[in-house]
Amino acid sequence: MASIRMPFAGNSAREPSGYPDESVDALSGILDTIHLRSLVWGSSQLSAPWGIRFPQGPTDFPPQFLPPRDCIPLPPRDRWPCPTGAFHVITGGNCVLDAACLATPVPLAAGDLVILLRGPAHILRDSLSSPILPVWEIHPPERSRQRKGIIAGGGGTVTSMIHGVFFIGDPHDNRLLSDLPPLLHLQAGEGGGAAWLEDTVDMLNRETSRFEPGAQSVINHLTQTLFIRAVRAHLASLPAGGATWLRAIQDPEIGTAIGLIHDAPNAPWTVQSLADTVAISRSAFAARFTALLGQAPLQYLTGCRMRKAAEMLGSGQAPIKKVAIRVGYDSEAAFSKAFKRTMGIAPSLYRKDAPSDMGLMARTAIAATSERPARRR
Fold first, then answer.
1. Residues with Cβ < 8 Å from 179, sequence gap 6 or more?
2. Which residues contact 28 (CB under 8 A, 6 or more apart)?
3. Which comes out higher in pLDDT, residue 252 or 274?
C-alpha cells in the first residue's frame, strides 16, 4: 500500500475550505476516547553508514531492552501493552524508510514527520545499500531503559531524529485508526518546514534530554499534537467522494451529528432528533449517514454507548447502575440486557474480567454493533 505524503502549507496543516467547526468537534470526540499516550526513546545521532530494524512490538524485543512497565503511561491492564504505532521526526540529515506496508522505500529529510500506525515493523537507514541491524544490537539496554537516544554508525554524515511509540487504551475497535493509512508522512516545506513542527520538536528535544519532573506529561501532550496535526493533514488530503468514517466527519450535517453523539451519548437521541438538529429531513439524514458510515445512526449510537460503558466498567469508575444512566439507559436491567447482547458478556463479568482474555474478547465484540439494530430501551 502506498504511503500518504502531505506537504506542509505555511505554518500549519491546510484545512479544506468550508471545514466546519462541528467536524472538528467530531474528531475531538474520537481523539478523547482513544486515550493516546506515548513513550519517546530520545534524540538519536546516527552517522553513515547505518541501518536499523524496528520490530513489530515490545514482545519482539529482548526483555532487558524494554523500560520498566511503570514507565508506560497506560492503566496496568497488561504487562506490556501493544503499541498502536511508531513515530520518527527527522531533525537533521536524510534517511530512507522501508516497511512491508509500503510499495517503495520513502526518502525522509530534515523536518519530516512519519507516523507508522498499527505497529508495523520497519527499517530506517542512511541509504538502501547500508547494512541493517536490529535496534537492540546497536542501542545498549541501559540507554533504552533510561530513554536515551541511539548513538551509532560508521562516522560519516550524521542524521539526527527523535522517535518513539504511541499507545492507546483499546485499539480493538477504533474507527479513526482503521480508516487511516498505515503511514502518515508530513513533508517539510522549503526553508525548514512548518513553524509548529519546528517548535514542537524543539520542546521535545528539551524535554527528552533533560527529563525534569513532569516531563512525561509534557512529552505526551507534544506527541499528541504531532498525531493530531498529522490526522488533520490527512483529512485535508482526502479526495472528494468515497464512503469512510473520515469522510463522514467532514460532511457538514453528518459530521455535526457524529460530534453530538460523541459529546452526549447519554442523550435521548432518535433519528428524527438528530436530523432536526442538523436541519435536514429524517430520510435524507438516515440515508446519507448509512452511506457514509456503513451503519444506521442508531447502530452507531449504540456502539458509542457501549464503548463508553466498557471504558467505565473496565476502569471501575462507577457502579453498573450509574454507568447505565451515563450512557443513556433508564434502568440497570435494560442496560445490562443491551450490553450483554452487544458484547456477549454481562456488565458485571466484563468489569471483573476486563484485564483478562474474556475482557479482550468482549471488547473486540463491540464491532458487532454495526451488524445489529440498536435499541435504546
1. 244, 245, 246
2. 259
3. 274
Q: What is the pLDDT of residues 83-126, one digit of tens each?
A: 678 899 998 999 999 998 899 999 999 889 999 987 678 999 99
- Could you say which architecture CATH assigns to the domain 4-237? Sandwich (2.60)
Q: For residue range 281-299, what is the model confidence (pLDDT) as tens digits?
A: 999 999 999 998 888 999 9
What end-to-end distance do the CA atoms of the chain give, in Å? 43
pLDDT reported for residue 46: 96
- Quick one: fold of 251-371? Arc Repressor Mutant, subunit A (1.10.10)
Q: Classify residue 13 by its DSSP letter.
A: P
Return the residue matching grid coordinates 482474555: 357
What are the cell numbers at 351? 468489569
- The beta-strand segments (E) located in the chain are 4-7, 37-47, 51-54, 85-92, 94-99, 106-109, 113-117, 122-125, 133-134, 151-153, 158-167, 183-187
Grid coordinates of 192:
525548514
| Segment 118-159, tens digit of pLDDT | 767 899 999 999 999 998 888 877 776 666 788 999 999 999
**Residue 178 three-state SS:** helix
The whole-number pLDDT of residue 43 equals: 81
Residue whose grid cell is 467532514 = 250
Query: Using an 8 Å Cβ cutoff, are 67 and 145 in contact?
Result: yes
Query: What pTM, to 2 d.p., does this model score?
Result: 0.72
Query: Following CA atoms 34, 261, 238, 100 in sequence, which dihedral angle do they give, to the nearest 10 degrees?
Result: 30
Task: Write the CB contacts of 220 (distance below 8 Å, at least 6 apart in sequence).
Answer: 36, 37, 38, 73
Question: What residue ranges do the domains of the chain occupy?
Answer: 4-237, 251-371
3-state SS assignment for residue 116? strand
